[in-house]
Each structure stands twice: as C-alpha cells, then as structure tokens.
C-alpha cells in the first residue's frame, strides 16, 4: 500500500520505487515505530480527536502486529516503501477503518524523527552498558597489576617505568569520558518531535507534552521545523562512537605490539586468536586488528552524515533518509567491537617477568639517577649531563645503570654513594611517584578505590 497514491495518475517506476524505499533498513526500528504510534493515538483519544473505541482497536491492532513480528508469524513485506507504510497497511487489514485514523495529526517526517530518536535512545543505553563492562574489566586488571612493572613509552621509545595498572588506568579515564559523553548526548536529545507534523505543526488540538511524557521524553521539542530537520544528535552520537573507536584502536595497536614475537608482553588467548592457512606456527591478533580496522567505517559514518546535512534547506529533505544505514552500521560495529575487545583483554595473559625485564633495561631509570644527583645538590642541567655520560658508558659496556659498580659511578661523579642502587631500583622509581595521577602503588590504590566508587554509581 502507498500512503500517497491519490494525486498520481501513473504507477511509480519500479527502479524509482526501489531507489526511494527504505524498508530494507528502517524495519530495524519496527518496535519503536509501533511504540510511537501507540503513544500518538493514546494522546489523540485523550484530546477527543479519536474515540476511545477507535483508540482501543488501533492499540490492539498495533500490539498484535508487534507480537506477530516479534515471534515471526508476521514477516515484513519488502514491497512497501518503508516500515511506516507497512505497519499502517497491516493495521488497516486487521482493524479496518479505525486503522485509517492512525496517521491523524502527524506526518512521516515527525514520525521518522521520533522513531530514530527512540531507537537511538535504546542503543545509547546498550552501548553504555557495554562501556561499563569494559571499565569494570579494566579496573579488575588494575587491581591485579599494581606491582607489574613495565616500561612507559614516548615516541615508542622506553621512557620511564610504570606499572600495568597505571597503563590500564589511562584507558579507564578515556572510556570514562566516553561514557559521560553518551550520557550527555542522551540528555540533550531527549525531547519528543512527534506532533510537529510535516514541518508546521497541526491544526488538531494535540497535547505534545502528553505524548512526550508517555514516551519518557523530558518534554516536546520547541520548534516544529527543527523537530523534523534536526539530526544533530546523530552527528554527536557518531562523533562519540568515533572517539570510542579511536580509543579502542589505540589500545588494539598497543596489544598488537605487545603480542608481537619481539615484545611478548602479552599473549592473546587461543579463543581470541586466529591461525594462518600456510604458516603453521602463526597465532595472529586478528581481533585487535579488525577492531583497529573497523574504526575507519565509524569515522566514515560521521563524515558522511555531516556531509549529507551541510547543504539541506529547512525543513525535511529526503537526503535525511541516508542517516539510517550508516548510523545503524556504526552502532552495531561499536557494540561488536566493545564486546569482543572486553572478551579479549579479560582472557589475555600478561607476561609479568618479560614486562619487568623490559622495564629494567633501556635506562628507564635515568631520570631517577639525575634526580638522585639533584637531591644531593647538583643542578638539574649538570645532573642530566652526568647521567648522559653514565648511559653512554653503559651502552659501550652493554650493561644497565644498576650493573655499574660504585667505583664506576664515582669515576663519573663523586656525588654517588651506595644508596644510589636503592634510589634507581625499579620499585623506587615507580613507587616514589605518588602525586595525583602518578603510577606509585599508594596512588594507584586510591585511584582504584575511586574507580570502584564511580562504577557503583553507574546504573
Ligand atoms: N523513509 C523516510 C526517511 O527515512 C521517512 C520520511 C518520509 N518523509 C517524506 N516526506 N517522504 O526519512
């Protein structure tokens, strides 16, 4: 059934129909479409625009459609233009003339704006749940590894020693911001567009605030043109999802490096690795690579929608139908990536001894050796120069600072005493750093406790 055949004298060209139709993808929100329609007719009846009997038969019909679609007795017929046409046609088949009154006081423009918002709201909640599980997994790893030493890097060169807990804590902060971005977007978008009509409201005495309340919105949107033309919230969501993917992708890149034969900091579990068809020895980090790879398509969705929207005059334009496939794809991609990533890190083995050995060589304690001299009255710039000489000496002898004898230390600077070994040990280097945000064990314990308290506030 077409919703708009009346003013036409010819059939639509089949290719035009196919090109125009959205049912192949907008069927994804049939639940939300039906929920929106039920709220709309409930409001129409309250306002005396429909009788109570009409409302009852429409609501029964819609509930029947929902049940039948859910359990598979009813299949979505792809010959309809969109999910809205399909539901309305099916309703009229079920309940007759009352069904023809469903679309009173609304347009597909405000209807689709509503459906997409309802769908997006549900998905934001699901994504938040997944981010929460990831955060809680990260905090678990943190608890287990406040004493797992590893090198911290800048420029991918060993810099200063940290712990695995501290490294995981950095990602905890990133995903915590991601979570809060999702909350913000939800709050900002949570206004109902239904009742805005095609663009200019309607002449029926609709109670838009009531429909908004029935659908758990904070209230109705305040400009009917904006209501049907606004896709900002999708752009914000795609931006937040892109940021989540960027974070996951950086994390994956590190895991790929750590899992390499050269590093061997971690071993990805067999259940999360794949093999090679030709090289029997291979165990590849495909999941981490795929998450990194899929980041591109989520960014693509963001740029695509920004581009679609940039030239559109108010109010509704069919271009906006393009918001759906890419948003659905981005949401599904992100959900899949977060779940798999969480599974991968929760089963991954951290090779503590390899990490610690790596932190021990590479002069990650050079800064602490310089600080030792500073604490004994040497100006920092001179101390920097002296430790530079120590490093050069060690490189030539292929040893680390800790391996030097006290005589060797003293030959370069007489300021060094026996207590230098203690001062530049891995434990000291890490655990003396207890300012807010630093990797020292005391500070990490405080952060982990704060993380626990934060996680308990998430619903
Ligand atoms: N399938 C359309 C969309 O996704 C529904 C709105 C149709 N409105 C219209 N005036 N043709 O945007």
Please characterize this protein's 3D structure:
By secondary structure, the chain is mainly alpha-helical. The chain folds into three domains: 5-104, Fumarase C, Chain B, domain 1; 109-142 and 164-208 and 216-350, Fumarase C, Chain A, domain 2; 358-457, Ribonucleotide Reductase Protein R1, domain 1. Helix content is 62%, strand content 5%. The chain contains 19 helices and six strands. The chain has helices spanning 14-20, 23-26, 30-46, 52-71, 83-95, 108-144, 164-189, 208-214, 224-229, 232-258, 286-310, 323-347, 352-360, 366-375, 380-397, 406-412, 420-423, 426-431, 441-457; strands at 149-154, 157-163, 191-192, 219-220, 266-267, 349-350. The strands form three sheets. Strands 1-2 form a two-stranded antiparallel sheet. The chain has a two-stranded parallel ribbon with strand order 3-4. The protein has a two-stranded antiparallel sheet with strand order 5-6. α6 (108-144) packs antiparallel against α19 (441-457) and α10 runs parallel beside α12. The two termini are 43 Å apart. The structure holds arginine (ARG). Arginine binds at residues 22, 26, 82, 108-109, 112, 316, 318, 320-321, 324.
Task: Point out poorly predicted stretches.
Answer: none
How much β-strand is present in the residues? under 5%
| CATH topology term of the largest domain | Fumarase C, Chain A, domain 2
Number of domains: 3
The description of the largest β-sheet is: 2 strands, antiparallel
Please write the CATH class name of the largest domain: Mainly Alpha
Helix content: 55-70%
- Small molecules in complex: arginine
Q: What coarse outline follows from CA principal-axis ratios?
A: elongated
Named at the architecture level, the CATH assignment of the largest domain is Up-down Bundle
SSE-based structural type: mainly alpha
Radius of gyration: 31 Å
User: How are the strands of the biggest sheet laid out side by side?
Assistant: 1-2
Taken in chain order, the helices and strands follow as HHHHHHEEHEHEHHEHHEHHHHHHH
Tally of helical runs: 19
CA distance, first residue to last residue: 43 Å
SS elements, strand count: 6
The quaternary state of the protein chains shown equals single chain
């Amino acid at each position: 059934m077409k919703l708009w055949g009346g003013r036409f004298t010819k059939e639509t060209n089949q290719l035009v129909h196919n090109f125009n139709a959205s049912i192949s993808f907008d069927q994804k929100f049939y639940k939300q479409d039906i929920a929106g329609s039920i709220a709309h007719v409930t409001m129409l009846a309250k306002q005396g625009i429909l009788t109570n009997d009409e409302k009852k038969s429409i609501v029964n019909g819609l509930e029947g459609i929902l049940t039948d679609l859910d359990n598979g007795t009813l299949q979505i017929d792809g010959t309809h233009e969109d999910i809205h046409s399909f539901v309305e046609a099916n309703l009229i088949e079920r309940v007759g003339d009352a069904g023809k009154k469903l679309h009173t006081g609304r347009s597909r423009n405000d209807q689709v704006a509503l459906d997409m918002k309802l769908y997006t709201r549900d998905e934001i909640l699901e994504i938040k749940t997944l981010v929460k599980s990831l955060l809680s997994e990260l905090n678990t790893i943190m608890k287990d590894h406040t004493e797992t030493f590893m090198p911290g890097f800048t420029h991918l060169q060993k810099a200063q020693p940290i712990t695995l807990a501290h490294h995981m804590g950095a990602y905890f902060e990133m995903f915590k911001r991601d979570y809060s971005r999702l909350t913000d977007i939800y709050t900002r978008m949570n206004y109902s567009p239904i009742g805005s009509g095609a663009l200019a409201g309607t002449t029926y005495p609709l109670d838009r605030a009531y429909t908004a309340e029935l659908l758990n919105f904070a209230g109705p949107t305040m400009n009917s043109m904006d209501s049907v033309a606004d896709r900002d919230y999708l752009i914000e969501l795609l931006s937040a999802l892109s940021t989540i993917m960027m974070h996951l992708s950086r994390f994956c890149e590190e895991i790929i490096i750590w899992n390499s034969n050269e590093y061997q900091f971690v071993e990805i579990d067999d259940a999360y690795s794949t093999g090679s068809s030709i090289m029997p020895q291979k165990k590849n980090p495909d999941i981490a690579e795929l998450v990194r790879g899929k980041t591109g398509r989520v960014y693509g969705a963001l740029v695509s929608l920004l581009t679609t929207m940039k030239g559109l005059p108010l109010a509704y334009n069919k271009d906006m139908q393009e918001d759906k496939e890419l948003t659905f794809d981005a949401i599904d991609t992100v959900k899949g990536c977060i779940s798999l990533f969480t599974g991968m890190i929760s089963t991954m083995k951290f090779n503590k001894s390899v990490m610690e050995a790596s932190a021990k060589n590479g002069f990650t304690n050079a800064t602490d050796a310089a600080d030792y001299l500073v604490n004994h009255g040497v100006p920092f710039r001179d101390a920097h120069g002296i430790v530079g000489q120590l490093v050069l000496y060690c490189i030539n002898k292929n040893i680390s600072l800790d391996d030097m004898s006290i005589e060797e230390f003293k030959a370069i600077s007489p300021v060094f005493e026996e207590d230098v070994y203690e001062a530049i040990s891995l434990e000291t280097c890490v655990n003396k750093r207890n300012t807010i945000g630093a990797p020292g064990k005391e500070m990490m314990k405080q952060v982990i406790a704060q993380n626990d308290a934060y996680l308990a506030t998430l619903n």
